[in-house]
Amino acid sequence: MKEMGVKDYISILTRNWKYFTVSFFLVLILSFVFTLNYDRYKSTVTVQIQSPEIAENIASLTFDGAARMAEALADQRINQIQQRVTSTSGLIEVINKLNLYPEDRKRMPLAEVAADMRKKIQLDMVSTSLANPTAAQRASAGQLSAIAFNLTFAYDDPLKAQQTTDELISRFLDEDLKQRRVQATETNAFIAYQVTALEKTLEEQDKKIAEFRARNPNARPESLAFNQQMLASTESSLREVNTRISSLEKQRGDLKGQLALVQPYSMAVMDGQVLTSPDIQLKALRSQLAILKGQYSERHPDVIRVEKQIQLLQKQVRPTRPRQDTSKFQSRLIDAETRLKILEETRSPDHPDIQNLKGQIAQLKQKIATSRATSMTDEMVQDADNPTYLMIVSQIQATEASLAPLLDQRTELERQIQEYQRSIAEIPKVEEEFSALTRDYENTMIAYRELRARQLSAEMSEKMEADHKGERLVVINPPELPTDTSPGRKMLLLAGIFLATLSGIGTVFVIEILSSVINGQNHYYRLTGTLPLVSIPYLYTERERQNRKRHLLYIAGATVAFITVVLGSFHLLIMPLEVAWTLLLRKFGIY
Amino acid sequence: MDKLTRALEKARQKRLARLSSEHGGAGELLKGGTPNPDGTLPVDGDDPGSLPAPVRRSRIFHISDTQLEANRLISRRLQDRNADLFRVLRTKVMQEMGRIGARTLGVTSPVYGDGKSIIAANLALSLAQDVNQTVLLVDLDLRDPSVQRNFGIDAELGLGDYLKGDAQVPDCMVGLDIERLRLLPITHPLEDSSEVLGTPKMAALARELKNRYADRIVIYDMPPLLTQADTIAFLPHVDAVLLVLRDGGTTLEDFERCRDALANFHVVGAVINDRRFKLI
Ligand SMILES: Nc1ncnc2c1ncn2[C@@H]1O[C@H](COP(=O)(O)OP(=O)(O)OP(=O)(O)O)[C@@H](O)[C@H]1O
Ligand SMILES: [Mg+2]
């Protein structure tokens, strides 16, 4: 079996040319009629979306990203508005206003008519670069990111199509304006709310800082140097006071040494003895008593008298306490304090050694204080009558009197030193806390300022919307009266010719497939594997040849006559041919 | 049968009437200086004595080119593409027949009007043009005899007379003023001839034509293969078969049935007739 070749297909076509012709012209005439009756007109309006706001906000982005973002934003907004405009109620308004679909309205509920109408409304976003070259140029220069969209409406009457598109787009613009005004107001309210909230926060933070300041009057970061200076000067004062104290104490110690050498009492002689003091008198009396008791009975008046004297003296002589040496404590105290100072320079204030030393120092000071308190009263004999003694005592008393305020001063200085040290130690912590507070405050302040700026611009834009100055949808191509159907009649006719050709070919091939007759040598070959001996064509006789010629002439003549008659009667009865021709050309968009 | 006899009777009367009226015509033809002096007529005279009927001389008909042309018998033309086609056919058929040693060829087709008669006549004419061949064209289509019509002759006797027993085979043959071509026509259509081809008489005819004229090629213009039952009955008496198919007319079904029917016979090949409109 031989495969079908191009030649076979052509031979099939030529063999069945009659079918081809019939089907071709049938479809052609049908498509012609269809084209003439076709009435679907599209009216389109192009609207540009100018959005300076968007351009501002995303100026920092790359153009590509900006464009895409702007596109997405615009897309969303346009879609929203479209939904509003093409809502059933909105469309019904348009239908009633322009009296659209009079036929359909008789048959269908309005909502359905509106639903049908919605399908005829088409909205296409057009990105700038495609919209027009100048816009693309400006866009690439970063001047704007404008996007356009096309709104199209199809209707079977060109004028109505245009009017409807016009109506729809004006509704669209209205809706857009309304929405943007609402949006601006809302934005404003929101920003105002935020401003108030921030103001409150600021107030709170301000108060916190004030409180903190009150709590830490010295502990301001700037007081570190001051404190250190103060500490240094206080320490030098302390050192001075200490030297003075120690010199006074030395003086007092010297005086006390002198005092010890001087008898408080004036000289008294008894029994050959110089009785200087009650102690010695007591001793003498006791030895006298012991002698008397050996000589006399207990009842002896001498014995009794001496005993009485002893008793008296015993009352006079108070038991003596060991004398404490304050200077010993003093040196220990100085030693401890120097050690503390050294330690404090190297160790942290809560180091156990420092704590320990501080405890020792406190103890020593206590001891010194008590020993001094007693020294004045105990060390001195109340009833001393020795003038030298009394003079020394008075000197001691004077020394002590000048020592007392110095001691007080020293305690005060030490306290101050401690205070300064503590302050200095605390400063980093406080500083941190303080700077955290100020930082918070400053941040809030920045946010607040920004928000204020936005509030200003929002207020401005709201005002602009109210004044119709914020118009951003611009009709760049108003809807035109469609002159040709959509798709155009020329296109339809071309499609018709194409379809006719297809249908001719299709018919031929269908007939070829359906027909089960032998078709030509090749077919025979495919059936049998051998070629026929010969293939004889139609054998014309001379008569047939002539007849055929005559026949063709007749047909041609008849056709011409027929066309002439038809055109003539059309010309006379319906309209002049030239008018019809012009009309026809216009209808197909050819002039 | 009644019909058949009546028809034959009618034919005879007609023929007799014509014989008397055309006597002069034939004579004129002979007188016209175009007798057939060559071997064809004397051969007819060599009838074997076994045949009872008296020997009659075949008439010689004048065939004009216009007559042939009007009936699409164009194969004698020179420098004619269609005639060339028939010459090609002639060659191929002769080759094939020579290969299998055949001398009689039946031309048939699936149904009526496929062009058997035209192909057979043109082939016969073409063969006769070849100086080596003497050709006898026998019309076997009893219902619609076309040899007489196609050649425009008006024979007195034909196959019908032979079948009726009124005439011998040689008497029925017709000579033409075309060299080496004889016809065995059917003068009148025979109704109810459905079984005729299967009769012994036909077998005898076939035998006689084959044996007596050994140097001749006999071409039978047969009835359609599928519409007439006795076509097949006669096929055993022919040496080879030429199948005519009509382009765009013969259905595949018919073609298949023909192939089945012809499976046991020598088919020299097929002719596709009436090839349709062609650009390439
Ligand atoms: N190739 C041809 N060109 C033109 N006409 C043709 C051709 N072949 C046949 N015809 C016409 O078709 C008709 C039938 O032809 P023809 O008588 O040869 O066929 P047939 O097969 O012998 O028919 P039937 O079966 O009736 O005898 C005739 O009119 C003839 O002229
Ligand atoms: Mg025939």
What does this protein structure show overall?
- The complex is a heterodimer of chains A (591) and B (280).
- Chain A is α+β, with helices and mostly antiparallel strands and 591 residues long.
- Among the domains of chain A are: 72 residues, no CATH class; 61 residues; 55 residues.
- Helix content of chain A is 74%, strand content 7%.
- Chain A has 20 helices and 7 strands.
- In chain A, the strands form 2 sheets. In chain A, strands 2-3-1-6 form a 4-stranded antiparallel sheet.
- Chain B has 280 residues and is of the alpha/beta class.
- Chain B has 11 helices and 8 strands.
- Chain B has an 8-stranded mixed sheet.
- In chain B, α4 packs across α5.
- Chains A and B meet through α1, α18 and β7 of A and α4, β7, α11 and β8 of B.
- The structure holds adenosine-5'-triphosphate (ATP) and magnesium ion (MG).
- Adenosine-5'-triphosphate (ATP) sits at the interface of chains B and A.
- Magnesium ion (MG) binds next to α5 of chain B.
- Chain A: GO terms for molecular function: protein tyrosine kinase activity.
- Chain A: InterPro entries: Bact_polysacc_biosynth/exp.
- Chain A: Keywords: Coiled coil, Membrane, Transmembrane, Transmembrane helix.
- Chain A: This is Lipopolysaccharide biosynthesis protein.
- Chain B: Keywords: ATP-binding, Kinase, Nucleotide-binding, Transferase.
**What is the terminal separation of chain A in angstroms?**
55 Å
Instruction: Give the N-to-C terminal Cα separation of chain B.
Output: 53 Å
- In the CATH scheme, the class of chain B would be Alpha Beta
Helical stretch tally of chain A: 20
Coiled coil (chain A): 195-258, 403-433
Organism (chain A): Phaeovibrio sulfidiphilus
InterPro entries (chain A): Bact_polysacc_biosynth/exp
Keywords (chain A): Coiled coil, Membrane, Transmembrane, Transmembrane helix
